[in-house]
Structure prediction request, 415 residues.
Amino acid sequence: MKADMIVGIQWGDEGKGKIVDLMAQNYDVVCRYQGGHNAGHTIWVDGVRYALHLIPSGVLNPKAINIIGNGVVVSAEALIEEMKQFEGLLGRLFVSDKAHMILKHHILIDQAKEKLRGEKAIGTTGRGIGPSYGSKIERSGHRLGELRDTAKLATSLVEFYTENKALFQALDIITPDFVTLKAELDGYADVLLPYLADTTQMVWKFLDEQKRVLLEGAQGTLLDIDHGTYPYVTSSNTISAGACVGLGLSPKDIGKVTGIVKAYCTRVGNGPFPSEDFGDDGVKLRDKGKEFGTSTGRSRRCGWFDAVACRYASRINGCDDLSIMKLDVLDGFPQIKICVAYEINGQRVDTLPEDLENAKPIYEEMPGWESVVGCRKYEDLPQSAKAYLARLEEITGTKIGLISTSPDRNDTIIL
Ligand code: GDP
Ligand code: IMO
Ligand code: MG
Prediction:
């Protein structure tokens, strides 16, 4: 059996949570493979809202096993807090003992460095993501499995704090002493040790047993550390290839890849966004789409569908199809724009350039429609909505497999 995948196509917040939750009804196992609690995946079921940051969005399907893979960076504190929302997680949630920890100093470094960057701030979520992945790559990080010997871990951390005293002083960060640290780590170990596992072996076994495995991406393609809008990106590989590394799978283990994309575009944090709308339409998209961050509450920047970026993302992820989310948010716009190419230094460009900062959008306009909200059948969509979707398919070169018309699980058209 191969594992299927959900991946974000834009700058995150495309609606991955809704689709993973919907699909999880037909899967035995749901796995996160990168990112951390910078992610915020919202799910609405029967009028109740769930916001998930680390726990896979399969948790609302009582039969699904949920796995947090080695590629995720885990704040033990955040995970324990999130686990409190759910009962009976033992035996249903497994966390890789190879996953790196986000420790308190990572969070403080993230926030202090953002302050120092001033106008050039990335606009991180301040959750310690970059510094934790930094420690991992630098080979000074600590993995969750080390919670099995908290005295050794606390000793190692105190040594690290002493060796890097100058850095912590410069950033105004007070580091804990051994006793405080050990007590804190013991608290994490008490809760989390029963959940730790060799998740790679587990996923291999599930696939060998013909179980259906779904991989849940966090963030989006344009935030990928290698292939996104560097340096305004997150610190992990958000593209589909990241799932192999973040779980210990081979490319041959991957089956269908579904790209999740909004019918328009948003970004939270800084960095280039050619199709951003600074006028009334941008405000209208934000208000209608309730575009405020699930993790940080920050308001999201809004603009039009960027077909160039979507084509790029579709290719790099190997998308078999796209799920078009939030089509209802475009209800009532007399005209809808699609960014079909960029203009850079007077030249038309239709691939994603390295210097996206200098790209001006070239738009095509299409007539809008009155309402698609709650629509569950393709036949019931207005003609102009169908024409818009057909144009998106044509211009991105990727077929549409699903259309979402409200946050609710059931307000979905599956093609
Ligand atoms: P994720 O990070 O990709 O899981 O997305 P978020 O949860 O951060 O943001 C997506 C938001 O859009 C959430 O508040 C969802 O409830 C909401 N949403 C998802 N699909 C739709 C839809 O089709 N229509 C509308 N209006 N809202 C949607
Ligand atoms: P989901 O999974 C949207 C953005 C931050 C910032 C940049 C780096 O909900 O789609 P970080 O804290 O990761 O170092 O911040 O990445 N960012 C997201 N934007 N959705 C997310 O996750 C994000 N996770 C990080 O706003 O611009
Ligand atoms: Mg989100």
